[in-house]
Write a structure and sequence with these properties.
Blueprint (H helix, E strand, L loop, with lengths): L18 E2 L9 E6 L9 E7 L3 E2 L5 E2 L28 E8 L7 E8 L8 H4 E8 L8 E5 L5 E9 L4 E8 L20 E6 L10 E4 L10 E4 L10 E4 L5 E4 L7 E4 L13 E8 L5 E7 L1 H5 L7 E8 L7 E2 L5 E2 L1 E3 L5 E3 L2 E9 L7 E9 L7 E7 L3 H9 L3
Antiparallel strand pairs: 1-3, 2-3, 4-5, 6-7, 7-8, 8-9, 10-11, 11-12, 12-13, 14-15, 15-16, 16-17, 18-19, 19-20, 20-21, 20-22, 23-24, 25-26, 26-27
Protein name: EGF-like domain-containing protein
Keywords: Signal
Length: about 400
């Protein structure tokens, strides 16, 4: 649903319509195909957006989600243990897909999981980072492999640094003593500090966590890293998106992260531009994008958490101007391959797995989800995007 009235001062807004003048009108997810004119004196006629694979809509602003398989991702909510404090099994809350560099038919999922059966409502300080594996393709289902961190660590984002030849794991949290019961503590008791760790293999071992941003600093939570490396510029620099789409930058992964941009729109709680859980990337043209959990239904429907849950923001440069159209990029209603349709109560922590052919085509969306009627029992859901994933899986021998 598009919202006509933009309430936040200073928000960069582009009308969503069939006609386009620039690639910004196509959300930088495609190009504006302009119609030729008969003379140089004629005013160019408006064009139409030609969307990149994985995106659709008049302005290429919506993620083209394909039907999902009924059993996918990582769902271990039934994995109960008599020693658990809580009844919610090994609930999880979103993660990142990585293809094994040596064994291309092996896929890893690095995700947040909640210890002791405590579930989502006990995420702080019960969350820790675990790694799961799938040999049935990137959609899963994934099966627990090993523990990456102790509690309290949450919201992992993993990138490969080509210059350093290392995997970099960004999380929020601090080292916490072993829990004695399920509970939910505030960020003042267990801070959301952003830390980074490195490893030469996705299977570890990982270096000790180094805190790079203190949660007492504005917006310093929910990291979204992206390497600034290119073939023409093999730099060690890292861009880091955080809450509310603020942007930090460092000259190396374990260096000092400096704030270089804060968005002009108002992303405080209970505003129409209230977002969290940013996922940052740079596309094949060098443009910047972020996918966010949009809180618009909480604002407009008195705390409701569905179905409009996804927002897309974009810019030519890291320092902006960034554009946020306040329209739904995806929602929490899922169509499945068996023809069934289900609306999830919560769908957050978005992350995208891209093609490795240089096109950076979005192939799969991962997110943390809960079913209707559930509060703490959560899992990690994976849904294919567009149709390029079919060729990708076929090439790997999964179809």
């Amino acid at each position: 649903m598009r919202i006509a009235n933009i309430l936040a001062a200073g928000l960069a807004v582009i009308g969503a319509t069939q006609a386009c003048e620039t690639d910004e009108d196509c959300s930088l997810n495609g190009v504006c195909s302009r119609k030729p004119t008969k003379s140089f004196a004629s005013k160019p006629k408006p064009g139409a957006c030609k969307c990149d694979p994985g995106w659709f809509g008049d302005d290429c602003g919506r993620l083209d989600l394909a039907p999902a398989t009924p059993i996918n991702g990582y769902n271990q909510t039934d994995a109960v243990d008599p020693l658990h404090f809580g009844p919610y099994g090994n609930s999880s809350w979103g993660g990142q897909i990585l293809q094994d560099p040596q064994d291309h038919k092996l896929f890893h999922l690095v995700a947040s999981q909640f210890a002791d059966g405590c579930g989502l409502t006990g995420w702080r300080p019960s969350s820790y980072i675990m790694r799961a594996e799938s040999r049935t393709g990137p959609q899963g289902p994934y099966h627990y492999a090993d523990e990456v961190t102790k509690s309290f660590r949450h919201n992992p984002s993993v990138i490969w640094s080509p210059t350093d030849q290392k995997y970099l794991l960004y999380t929020i949290g601090v080292d916490a003593p072993k829990a004695e019961k399920c509970q939910s503590l505030t960020y003042k008791q267990w801070p959301n500090n952003i830390s980074v760790s490195s490893a030469h293999s996705i299977k570890g071992p990982w270096t000790p966590h180094k805190m790079i941003l203190n949660s007492l600093e504005p917006q310093s939570t929910n990291p979204a890293p992206w390497p600034l490396w290119t073939r023409k510029n093999p730099t060690r620099e890292i861009a880091l998106g955080v809450e509310d789409n603020a942007i930090f930058k460092s000259d190396k992964w374990d260096g000092e992260y400096k704030l270089i941009h804060t968005q002009t729109w108002n992303t405080t709680e209970w505003s129409p531009t209230w977002t969290e859980d940013t996922f940052l990337w740079r596309d094949k043209r060098g443009n910047w994008h972020a996918l966010d959990h949009w809180m618009i239904d909480l604002v407009e429907h008195n705390g409701q958490q569905w179905p409009r849950v996804g927002a897309h923001v974009y810019a030519r440069e890291l320092t902006g101007p960034w554009h946020f159209k306040q329209q739904e990029a995806y929602n929490s209603t899922i169509t499945f391959t068996d023809g069934s349709v289900r609306t999830l109560r919560r769908r957050e922590r978005p992350k995208i797995f891209f093609s490795d052919d240089g096109e950076l085509t979005p192939l799969y969306l991962t997110s943390g989800v809960t079913e209707m009627g559930q509060g703490s029992r959560s899992s990690t859901f994976i849904q294919p995007i567009g149709n390029k994933w079919k060729k990708y899986e076929k090439k790997l021998g999964f179809q």
